[in-house]
Write a structure and sequence with these properties.
With 193 residues, this protein is mainly alpha-helical. Helices cover 76% and strands 0% of the residues. The chain contains seven helices and no strands. Helix 1 (2-26) packs parallel to helix 5 and helix 3 (70-96) packs antiparallel against helix 4 (106-133). It is elongated. It starts with a helix and ends in a 7-residue tail after the last helix.
């Protein structure tokens, strides 16, 4: 039973990685803007990656649950999802504050990241609601399994967002921003024990 949870976490992290990559690639330097300095764009990109990084860090753990007690299984998963929803909400709020960045497409780029995180938030929130209303362990497992299958679809959403960011040709600022570099490291797959 522990394996489905691990797969869900991995799938959700993969979705976040795709969003992180799109944030990293998209908000970089602007070849068309003379008003924003490269330093301004790099600093802004660092904040964008920092906002996304809050969710990435929050998603890096597994739920601490008792698989032998169905009521604790439900409570443990619900509590775990609640902390993830709160982290995504904070990331989205932090991104909203960055919409008016130094690049002419700042709002467009940040909005794309917000929408991707919004889809993750919806998935997590919907799963939490299903868990909270579950009346037995089978319903809990079913809700969690549905989340696994839907998380895979978020990967393609993240790839679509990344493509949009890549098309702007603004990758160099993300390569210089410390939080973006940290995201690349923190989202690397970790060995399973």
């Amino acid at each position: 039973m522990r394996h489905p949870m691990r797969h869900t976490v991995i799938a959700l992290l993969a979705s976040l990685l795709a969003l992180t990559a799109c944030s990293s690639g998209g908000s970089s330097t602007s070849p068309t803007t003379a008003t924003a300095s490269e330093a301004d764009v790099v600093a802004w990109m660092d904040k964008v990656c920092g906002a996304v990084g809050g969710t990435v860090k929050a998603m890096s753990d597994e739920p601490n649950i008792d698989m032998n007690d169905p009521s604790k299984l439900k409570t443990g998963l619900s509590d775990w999802l609640g902390t993830k929803v709160a982290a995504v909400d904070k990331s989205i709020a932090d991104l909203k504050a960055l919409e008016n960045g130094p690049h002419p497409k700042s709002k467009e780029l940040v909005t794309a990241a917000e929408q991707g995180l919004g889809q993750i938030r919806t998935l997590l929130g919907d799963t939490k609601s299903k868990l909270d209303s579950a009346t037995d362990a089978t319903q809990v497992v079913t809700a969690f399994t549905e989340m696994i299958s839907k998380a895979a679809a978020l990967e393609s959403t993240g790839a679509d967002v990344q493509k949009k960011f890549d098309e702007t040709g603004l990758g160099s600022a993300a390569q210089k921003a410390a939080n973006c570099k940290e995201l690349n490291i923190s989202t690397a797959p970790t060995p399973t024990s």
